[in-house]
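Fold these two proteins, one after the other.
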Amino acid sequence: QVQLVESGGGLVQAGGSLRLSCAASGRTVSNYAMAWFRQAPGKEREFVSVISRSGGTIDYADSVKGRFTISRDNAKNTVFLQMNSLKPEDAAVYYCAATPSPAHYHATSSAAEEYDYWGQGTQVTVSS
């Protein structure tokens, strides 16, 4: 079982950048497909980005393509989400999620129900 702890959230002006971190303990991140989701007040949780277990497949929500970058540092056992050109609509609680499913070795999923482990979330606020 893996434990996930997010950090790096905060308040930033529109157009600014933040880098979120998801530190894993208990197991190595290379054994998991790792994803980021977000949830704004009054809205459903939505997919942001994912990196497959192999690291060879990466996917993004259309709303963040070209602005956000997911990466994984196996030595630090951490997954990152670099967020640039932030917009007010990016404001949300960002969650890190993981699944060890072999089906996600090369493939990825944007469905929250396919992820078994979740962090507690980190708040991102974007001022206009």
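Now the second one:
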Amino acid sequence: QVQLVESGGGSVQPGGSLRLSCAASGNIFSFPAMEWYRQVPAKQRELVAQITSAGNIYYADSVKGRFTISRDGAKNSVYLQMNSLKPEDTAVYYCRTGQGLYDYWGQGTQVTVSS
């Protein structure tokens, strides 16, 4: 069983930065990838960034050049460094991993970008 707990969300002005953390129990690195999603009300959950077990990284076009995903095997954690934040980045951010029938999500952390 895997449990994921996100932290690091909050309120920030446009242009600011936040670092999200996803702490995991269980061996998350046995799964193919760790991902960060975000969701705003009445919209589908959007894949923001992904890091695979091989170290390959994907970013959504909307965050490319501003967000950085990373992982720490010793701490069993994944991070999302978010710079140059924009109001449209406002959302609940979720950490996810899994494969096949195994699909694990954290509870989410709110990020609000507003002046």
